[in-house]
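This entry is set out below.
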Amino acid sequence: MRIYIKNSFKKVFSLIIEIYLGISGCASVPKNSSPELKVVPYVDLDRYLGKWYEIALYPNWFEEGCFRSTAYYEKLEDGNIKVTNQCHMHGPNGKLNKAIGTASIADDKTNAKLKVQFFWPFKGNYWIIGLDEDYQYAIVSEPDRQYLWILSRFPTMDDQKLEVLKNFILSKGFDLTYLEKIRR
């Protein structure tokens, strides 16, 4: 009985550590030694709300098997933002998978740094590092550059625009060899 408890505790503890490290930025992408990551000067959150389509990303464990990924942001009465991420699992017409969380503003000077929580007690950084003046695309990461998403208001993006965004990302110290286009 005692060995079973120890092994069960070990498994649960290992899972908790793995989840925490994944959320806090210790993913499969090597740590980056580039200068401090800068966010956009200001985000009008009312304009940012709504549906976004993932165009490209650094692969991560929590989106493994996802196709046609989207994020939907809506303002809550308390000023926080409801985040609904969804994708189709294992194929473009696979079972719909949803994750619902809450984002809070971590920097009210810019509104470009948020903390997102999908389950207690873990929160992840959500930094808007690139944003179209018409809010048609956004680039999101976190301070250690372990996660990266290119988002668009449309399900696809022309190759020329994507190349411009890749060059921008490269100038911010990201390694483009990890960037993958989303599966549609």
